[in-house]
Design brief:
This protein has two helices and nine strands; from the N terminus they run ββββαβββββα. It is of the alpha+beta class. α1 packs across α2.
Length: about 140
């Protein structure tokens, strides 16, 4: 499970968003051998204080969102820590980095691999887009 966003809301409640591989059948607990190494879908877990919601997004949607919002990562910045495999050689990593113009470090998500240079985007914006895809978009499809 990869923590992709963490912040406090206006009322001081902690808000966290995670991405994790999804089991094959929703609600089922497959044996480890049944879980694909590169999932087609990822679970998006959103914790807002005591409330926990879970939706899902495709691995490809994560790549598309990162390509839309990401900018080339500055040369020389090391990408260390946990990564989440997205398929086709791509992975998503979390990076805490402080640019010279920032007063404090910020959280970034970095799309690595996929035959291109790493792309970095502010974690909060990417998490918001993925939350929309996981939770709001299915409601819109149901309304027709």
């Amino acid at each position: 499970m990869l923590l992709i966003d963490e912040h406090f809301d206006g009322a001081g409640e902690l808000v966290r968003t995670y991405l994790a591989p999804v089991e094959i059948a929703p609600g089922a607990e497959p044996a480890p051998a049944e879980v694909p190494a590169v999932p087609a879908y990822l679970a998006l877990v959103h914790e807002h204080g005591p409330v926990r919601r879970q939706g899902r997004v495709s691995s490809q949607a994560v790549v598309v969102v990162m390509r839309r919002y990401g900018q080339p990562l500055t040369a020389g910045i090391a990408i260390e820590g946990p990564r989440l495999a997205l398929g086709a050689g791509a992975s998503l990593a979390r990076l805490r980095w402080r640019a010279q113009v920032d007063a404090s470090a910020r959280e970034y998500l970095v799309l690595c691999g996929a035959g291109a240079e790493p792309l970095a985007a502010l974690a909060g914006g990417v998490a918001a887009a993925l939350r929309h895809l996981a939770f709001a978009a299915p409601d819109a499809r149901e309304r027709g």
